[in-house]
Amino acid sequence: MTKNSRRVVISGLGVISPVGNTANEFFANLLAGHSGIRWFGDSGQVVGTVVDFDPSVYFTKPQLVGLDRVSQFGLTAAEQAVLDAKLDATALEAGRAGVYFGSGIGGANAIESGYRSFFDNSDGRMPPLTVISTMANATAAHLSMRYGIRGPVMTYSIACASSAVAIGEAYRAIRDGYIDVALAGGAEAMVTPVMVAAWAALRVLAKPDINFPEQSCKPFSKGRTGMVLGEGAGVLVLEALETAIVRQPKIWGEIAGYGISSDACHISKPSPAGQVGAIKAAIEDSQLAITDIGYINAHGTATQLGDVVETAAIKAVFGSAAHNIPVSSTKALHGHLMGAAGAVEMVASLLTLNAGSVPPTCHYSEADPDCDLDYVPNTARKGLDINAVMSNSFAFGGTNAVLIAKRFVQRHPRLTKDSSNPGLR
Amino acid sequence: MKTLTRSNNVAPKSTGSRTIAIMLGLLVENFGVAKEQLALDQRLDALGIDSLAFLEYVFELEKTLNITLPDVPRDLETVGALVAFVDSEVKRQHPSYSPT
Question: Are the Cβ atoms of B62 and A121 closer than 8 angstroms?
Answer without folding.
Answer: no
